[in-house]
Amino acid sequence: MDLKDYDKLLDEAYEKIPEDVKGTSRFEIPKVKLRYEGKNTYITNFNRIYQALNRSPKHFMSIFLKTAGTRGKLRGNQLFLMGEYKANVLNKLIKKYAKQYVICDVCNAPDTKIVKEGKKQFLQCTACGAREEIE
Ligand SMILES: [Zn+2]
User: Fold this and answer.
1) What is the reported pTM?
2) CATH number of 3-103
């Protein structure tokens, strides 16, 4: 079984999980769509992902690459990643980013913005008004 088939199986398995187990209610992050070229990976729907997260591609990319432990580059709507990555691994990293930089801890809404004050950054929720420092 090649890598693509494996990813497809994982995607299908994930789709079968009931909505309430996946959590985060109405907020849906698109699953990554991947293309492999040599030993590298392209996320071909990268633009849809950062748009859904409502963050700039630059911010998302810098954190994402750090947590993935690789280097990469924006190429139009795609993100080029050095190395081969499986879809489920990348989806998890995106979820982690969303939890830390997008979703409000108090009310679970994705309607937040990042506010900078001096050297500190806060996640400000426009839905419930909560404000938490981002570590
Ligand atoms: Zn909130």
Assistant:
1) 0.77
2) 3.30.30.170
